[in-house]
Design goal:
Helix content is about 40%, strand content about 15%. The strands form four sheets. Strands 13-14-15-18-17-16 form a six-stranded antiparallel beta barrel. The chain is α+β, with helices and mostly antiparallel strands and about 700 residues long. The protein has four domains: about 130 residues, no CATH class; about 60 residues; about 210 residues, Ribonuclease H-like superfamily/Ribonuclease H (Nucleotidyltransferase, domain 5), CATH 3.30.420.10; about 90 residues, no CATH class. Helix 2 crosses helix 3, helix 2 crosses helix 4 and helix 5 packs across helix 6. The two termini are about 75 Å apart. Strand 13 and strand 14 form a beta hairpin. About 25% of the residues are buried.
């Protein structure tokens, strides 16, 4: 019912769950500056939930997961040093007992030389803010009164003058009013006035109010510019400096084109990959054999439950690994429903972050996976080279999984592909599509998690003899009688943190990666897409992308932070809607080849065209030399007459003359009404055109 690190509100007081036990849990108050971990009975909390006295709430320190201090900075050094200082305390299983806690504190003081006040303050900070290393980051964001306006009293703000005479003017509300008048009248118009001109007009206005003021004591251009940048947003500045027509035509952003050492469930997950022993065919055309798929599996060591998997044709790599990891940490109900399996969350309860992930060194290395350690407090463990036995739990599961389909399925790999006389190539026996194979794998995993009996499972001493050795039952027993290690986290933050990164460039066309353009509401609001010399945009930004989908990317606008903006395709790159980045790269490669071939033909035809033009000109010059008996003045004066003659000849040649035949007999006219004189003149609709509607 409860998860480690979740925040609940009890009698209007927020608490964070620190540890789960069989009948109790440990929590700590978030608002009390002298709070200590408390032991609470689960039954009492369940009653409080029923009485609506206890409710879940959002984590007020969730933003700490997005902070990534730069290497070598004071913030990172303080965070790491503080964590190492209190590590013996926070990692102790008896941290909630006052006597044990006091003994550990005294040991730390004896070894490190710190004080009780500091240690308790850091430990309380660690517990209250999410039990991650980032909880110990200093609150530099509260320093400097960022975002608050400074008010000068008796001394001008900023550094004193060094070269210019005088002390400078103090900017008060009256001067700010004059700033606004000059800016609104001369700068935020479509007249094209420069900022220095607007400042000169401000000076004239200032002197009208304060005559005989020395030039050096008048507010400077820089002071007015500081006010201008602080008070006026870039989007508004750009929009008001051009006319509405020009803004819509030339400045406005374009939008038309464009897992014996585990304590319980979640203590350690193991992840590994293998190539399935079967050949598959395409979902769209069963005649197309697409090869052998890659299977990634994530497995909980304690319960042997498969928590996540991946089936596809990505090579064993980081790209495929993150898909299985993301699935392992999130709810699988909707995923199973997509493949026709109706389950509940209790049928596949592995939702949340594990304490550790054990993997091969190859694919689980790099910047993105390291973010799991610092931002989400997940320990990444790597096996030594050539030691697949270190992950025996997940390694053995591949053989069990494939035993479910290899005796029956066509296209299964058997021996060698080299045929003996009369043999048939097993690849040609492929019949299962990719989707059908995924359904088989998913059904095998659901059976394993809910019903498979683990005959060789080694029981611990405290496990009852009547406990069914089934992954689901082991998982539930572990949550009730052991320390459950799963912790909550935002799926979006987790997923985006794991995606591969690239540097994206910016222009007035949008954010660009791999030649594909993207935009977002935030980017437009920043004014980065406006086509104006006033627009200021960063040259490059960090971007994360999902290789399986080119429809969206994720931009990180702040340095050393994992806060992101979601960007979508612009109409300019609409050809890649619904495509993957592998599709994008393939299409771009084909386009470049086609372009190169077209340029070769164009160059040849351009050369032939130029030769034709030059030949015609040469012939015309040769024929026209010394052919006129008129003087230059007479030739010039006869231009209009010559033009009229050519125009008359052109009209005569272009006139349309229908073939009316040679019949002499005229058609007989039959009158419909012999007594009414017919009017065959052109109809006049003046009254109908200009009359008002009834």
């Amino acid at each position: 019912m409860f998860q480690i690190n979740e925040v609940v509100e009890y009698n209007e007081v927020p608490f964070r769950v620190l540890m789960l036990m069989s009948d109790h849990l440990i929590w700590i108050s978030l608002d009390d500056t002298s709070a200590f971990p408390q032991l609470v009975n689960k039954k009492e909390l369940q009653i409080a939930v029923d009485e609506e006295v206890l409710t879940r709430m959002d984590d007020p320190y969730s933003e700490l997961a997005f902070q990534t201090p730069e290497e070598g900075t004071i913030a990172k050094t303080k965070r790491d040093n503080n964590y190492q200082l209190i590590k013996p305390l926070v990692e102790s299983p008896e941290f909630y007992l006052a006597k044990s806690r006091s003994a550990i504190i005294n040991q730390i003081i004896e070894k490190q030389g710190s004080t009780k006040q500091t240690l308790y303050r850091l430990a309380r900070r660690y517990w209250q803010r999410g039990q991650t290393q980032n909880a110990l980051l200093p609150d530099y964001k509260n320093s400097g009164a960022k975002g608050k306006k400074r008010i000068a009293t008796n001394k001008k703000l900023g550094r004193p003058r060094k070269y210019m005479p005088g002390t400078g003017a103090i900017i008060d509300s009256f001067i700010e009013r004059l700033f606004r008048i000059a800016i609104d009248k001369y700068l935020l118009t479509d007249k094209g006035y420069s900022f220095p001109y607007a400042h000169r007009r401000f000076k004239s206005l200032y002197e009208n109010h304060f005559p005989n003021t020395p030039e050096e004591e008048i507010p400077t251009n820089w002071q007015m510019m500081h006010f201008y940048k602080r008070e006026y947003q870039q989007v508004n500045r750009i929009q008001k400096q051009v006319s509405r027509i020009e803004y819509n035509k030339d400045v406005k952003p374009l939008s038309s084109t464009a897992n014996t050492q585990v304590l319980g469930p979640g203590s350690r997950y193991e992840i590994d990959a293998t190539i399935a022993d079967i050949y598959l065919v395409s979902d769209s055309d069963r005649a197309n054999i697409v090869g052998r798929p890659v299977i990634y599996m994530v497995k909980d060591v304690f319960s042997r439950m498969v928590t996540g998997f991946y089936v596809g044709f990505e090579n064993a790599s980081y790209i495929a690994a993150i898909q299985s990891l993301a699935m392992a940490m999130t709810d699988k109900v909707e995923f199973c429903r997509e493949y026709g399996f109706e389950i509940t969350s209790e049928d596949w309860p592995s939702v949340g972050l594990p304490d550790a992930i054990l993997a091969d060194r190859g694919e689980i290395l790099g910047y993105q996976i390291e973010s799991l350690e610092s931002n989400f407090s997940i320990r990444i463990e790597n096996t030594p080279p050539y030691r697949g036995d270190a992950k025996g739990i997940v390694e053995r599961s591949f053989k069990t999984l494939q035993a479910d389909f290899t005796p029956f399925a066509p296209g299964v790999v058997t021996g060698t592909k080299i045929k003996k006389r009369g043999d048939k190539d097993y690849r040609l026996d492929a019949k299962l599509t990719i989707c059908e194979f995924k359904e088989i794998i998913l059904s095998s995993i659901l059976y394993h998690n809910q019903f498979a009996v683990l005959e060789k499972y080694d029981r611990d001493v405290d496990m009852p003899s009547d406990l069914p050795l089934v992954p689901k039952e082991l998982w539930q027993w572990g949550l009730q009688h052991r320390t459950g290690r799963l912790r909550t986290a935002s799926y979006d933050a987790l997923r985006v943190s794991l995606l591969p990164r690239i540097k994206a460039t910016l222009s007035d066309l949008g954010i660009c990666i791999y030649g594909v353009y993207y935009t977002s509401v935030e980017i437009v609001q920043q004014g980065w897409l406006h086509r104006s010399s006033e627009a200021r945009r960063p040259e490059k930004l960090n971007a994360a992308y999902d290789p399986a989908s080119a429809d969206h990317i994720y931009i990180f606008p702040e340095k050393n932070s994992t806060k992101y903006w979601i960007c979508k395709l612009t109409p300019r790159s609409r050809e890649f809607e619904g495509a993957s980045f592998w599709d994008v790269w393939l299409v771009q490669e084909t386009q470049k080849q086609t372009m190169a071939k077209s340029k070769l033909v164009a160059e040849q035809k351009k050369r032939e065209h130029e030769e034709f033009v030059a030949s015609k000109i040469k012939q015309a010059v040769k024929k026209s030399s010394d052919t006129s008996h008129l003087s230059n003045a007479e030739r010039i004066s006869s231009i209009n007459d010559n033009k009229r003659k050519i125009k008359a000849l052109e009209r005569q040649e272009n006139a349309y003359r229908p073939d009316i035949g040679t019949k002499d007999k005229k058609a007989e006219v039959i009158h419909l009404n012999e007594h009414v004189e017919e009017d065959y003149s052109y109809p006049d609709h003046i009254d109908e055109l200009f009359s008002e509607d009834d």
